[in-house]
């Protein structure tokens, strides 16, 4: 028996939403049986119509807090964190109670996405950036990305005049030595480079895509590469996992990923995976949802995801979904709508990890496997009957990265092309409920949690998380989800995203064709 | 990305906002102008400061300041001038952090300035700043990162930093960041000072601390996470150790010298304390450690035998994970032809030295040498009448004519290794004492129907039993009944985590059944009537109808050749890879969902008869419980070869990938796979093609 006590397996964490009491015992049984034993404590399959009608939180109504404070050991003395938590839970449950008590037609309206309002809010935001996109801060490409990606998820696009202005503005942010800065004249920065490239891909026009100077960009990426294997945000800037992801994401999507960029990166990211299971921003820090996504996505893009302790990682992420139905970013923090994407997206990636390994079998035909053959151990089979598998148990993921450059960049493509039969690793309906009811602002836009203000950042990541959840049951990239996988009216269905880059999938395909046929 | 300031979507007053924007624009233009023209005057720096005060996210401004500082201090020796310049930088960071305490640029600028070491750092000031910021937001990870940076720069002892985390926990014990930092610091401290006395006193104190948190409020998560970490430190067996082997110490292996190499033969066990070998001329030696180790090879393990020189042996890890570490290692000994004639006995000695190379994942190594010996007797196979060539008959799992008889049980199964335990005594006593204190405490709280308490109690009891087992051999599984009850309670109390509890329960149950001689006898069925079945004169371990969901206690089962795990709820067979002697395996009527969930079976080279009928194979192609399956990608097989091989025969390699990978690794003579929901239409053809040795498929003779 193993002596390891994985925190991952603990049922502590956050109590999973319990299911409503009036469910039939068989459906409860089915659900419980479906929950993965060694990974997530959340069900991984088996959405039933019953669970659709009574979404998970509704039973929480009868239990204001998941675990009442003890009564025997003196009067309960909740901590500050807990008071805040109770406060949020109360607000969230109030909303769910309203949903629960409403008649079906009202309920349907409550769960609707207010598309027009959102598009109005977003478009206005873009226009308010000013007629000439005056430089006001260091995050302009981000604001462009948050807004334009959100609009594209809602199935709309900019009018061509506005689109041209965005392209023109981003061109002015492009540094003559490569990379994009937060605004014209500023220094190039990896995060804004990621935002600018994703924005241009989302716009998708020939003009937008060809405005990216790839030769210079790859030079910029090389300049940002640190001797530790990680990346720096900008010249003289900080090193962290975020920098690693943005660099690799951009290089991958633009087909400029090379061995030099990958070298040592896996080791750095590995050193950031904590004993909790998630990934921290820098070695020594605690696990964090945003960095976990960045670390996992980067590892997948450089074909070294297998080096992470994935079961532990998945458990840590899955247990960050709480009774509020949304995700928290770190242990014992409050729920926040933006983690719908950072955490939900990590699980969407994990869900497809088998296919990425599989897809490699094809690309490895050209030489990847050959490289690995050299590092298999020197065991010679004792007898014909023994399996060759034994001798090679895991040596060299690093070696595998030394494939042909084109193939490395194509990992993102084969990743999404693969068929996945695995259900979501989180409660996707519950997450949709949180986003639609607790994050959605009826006047347009999305927010962190009830009581907070809407903004473009949360709009972008709530919508991205919503899209991830809606498609979490459809294994093939070109098959639309079943109605029961989409909470609310089916018209709620958003565009599908590519979870490694967080750009909408159609736009990604277009960009892929463009950058891989150059 | 998260944590960056967002533009206020609704400026309260348009006029104010416009003025603000104009001011900002002005400052920005100035900055860029100064930056491009390398103007580093006082005025220029002041404008830059103003900009950063309003918007700390302008990273160009931070870089400009770095260049300015370097430029302005170039060749300056006046300490006051240096001091004033550095202080300016520190001040602007403080101002910026007031605007945005999560500004990456600001935090990094401060680190950069301090790293220059232009003047002796005023650590007081740094810690005051940190106090302020971590009071305002106790979970600000920039702050915690910076604290680690400063502590490192000042070479503050870990003990001092521990005091700080204690202070933060006292203020608010649900501050998970403080707990986390505490666990990180303590890990270092315990690594540095490996004296047991020290560990003992340190951990005892920590238990006191975490109890206060746990029992003040049971529903706050932070303390529970820390408690788990602490428990891990307590029960963590630092040094890897051999805990089981096959052949067992003192056993006599009777090796048949049949020439029929290709046919698999079941062994006879009619003679106590002897085994007959399955595959002629080759037999495995299996080592099972208490934790995964790497670097098991001919220099760390010495096998002295008349058959083969130690240097020629290759040890391989038995692990389905993609790793060079494993609990279980195997090597195969081949008996040279010249030794095969006549009947003689050969002693074999296996010894593991105290070896710094055989290390576990936490870097500790085998500190205590261990060794075991056994005898191999070679016999002409014709003298053994019991050997069955299994392929000639379809194996049916039928116990009608079987019985459990004590005398047929191998007597050596329970003394896998006689390890002298003197060296662990001291550690163990404290560990056990600590565990029993904790058990007592949690038993007191167990009447509250708190799943946290119940689960923790169950874990404590399991750990306690493991430690007992490690120490004395005398009190086996003394708490297993209590643990099983706790898990039953938990399934009712917390049905949404049922799958998890079932897994835990399975491991405990398997341990209970296999580590105790009397209960094992009840599970061993002996077929003594020659007419009864294919298994005549064989013993079969029958672990069916137990609601098992996963495999445990593998160390007790290394000897098993016939194993019946049917009518359970197994979702995965991970662990079976260690059972290198298995010939017949019954997994029918379980919940296996995919071929990848059967991955472990691929390394079982002697497996001939496999029953996986009535499972859920192919209902889901991918085992969602495991994410690291071997694949062409993990370089365990040559993907190119497979695809070339099968593509020309027009088989859809892509669609049947996992089937092909699975079947081609096996050497079955009999396969039962009926009753699985959604097998591919052409599975039958594929199976016949991929398994050239297959004679029986779903009860039908095919060759």
Spatial arrangement of strands, main beta sheet of chain A? 1-2
- In N-to-C order, the SSE pattern of chain A is HHHHHHHHHHHHHHHHHHHHHHEEHEEH
Largest sheet of chain A: 2 strands, antiparallel
CATH class of the largest domain in chain B: Mainly Alpha
Q: In total, how many domains does the architecture of chain B comprise?
A: 4
* Gyration radius of chain A, rounded: 23 Å
Give the count of helical stretches of chain B: 19
Mean pLDDT of chain B: 79
Give the low-pLDDT segments of chain A.
1-74, 131-135, 355-406
| Major β-sheet profile of chain B | 9 strands, mixed
**What fraction of the residues of chain A are assigned to beta strands by DSSP?**
under 5%
Name the assembly state.
heterodimer
Structural class of chain A: mainly alpha
Lateral strand order in the biggest sheet of chain B? 12-13-14-15-16-17-18-19-20
Number of helical segments with 4 or more residues of chain A? 24
Distance between the first and last residues' Cα of chain A: 55 Å
Q: Can you tell me the CATH architecture of the largest domain in chain B? A: Alpha Horseshoe
* Strand residue content of chain B: 5-15%
SS-derived structural category of chain B: alpha/beta
Number of E-state strands of chain B: 20
Short description:
Chain A contains 24 helices and four strands.
List the helices and strands and how they pair.
The complex is a heterodimer of chains A (518) and B (703).
Chain A: H1 25-34, H2 49-53, H3 80-101, H4 104-110, H5 115-127, H6 140-153, H7 160-173, H8 190-203, H9 206-210, H10 214-224, H11 241-253, H12 259-262, H13 265-272, H14 289-301, H15 310-318, H16 339-351, H17 353-363, H18 368-373, H19 397-400, H20 405-409, H21 411-417, H22 428-439, E1 446-447, E2 454-455, H23 456-470, E3 497-498, E4 503-504, H24 505-516
Antiparallel strand pairs in A: 1-2, 3-4
Helix pairs in contact in A: 5-6, 6-8, 6-23, 8-11, 11-14, 14-16, 15-16, 16-23, 17-21, 22-23
Chain B: H1 14-36, H2 42-54, H3 59-72, H4 79-99, H5 104-116, H6 123-136, H7 141-154, H8 158-171, H9 176-192, H10 196-216, H11 221-235, E1 242-246, E2 252-256, E3 274-276, E4 282-294, E5 301-304, E6 316-317, E7 326-334, E8 345-352, E9 355-360, E10 365-366, E11 370-379, E12 402-403, H12 425-444, H13 451-471, H14 480-493, H15 498-514, H16 517-523, E13 524-527, E14 538-542, E15 562-564, E16 584-586, E17 609-611, H17 639-647, H18 657-663, E18 670-672, H19 683-690, E19 696-697, E20 700-701
Parallel strand pairs in B: 2-3, 2-11, 14-15, 15-16, 16-17, 17-18, 18-19
Antiparallel strand pairs in B: 1-4, 4-7, 4-9, 5-8, 6-7, 8-11, 9-10, 12-13, 13-14, 19-20
Helix pairs in contact in B: 1-2, 2-3, 2-4, 3-5, 4-5, 5-7, 6-7, 8-9, 9-11, 10-11, 12-13, 13-14, 14-15
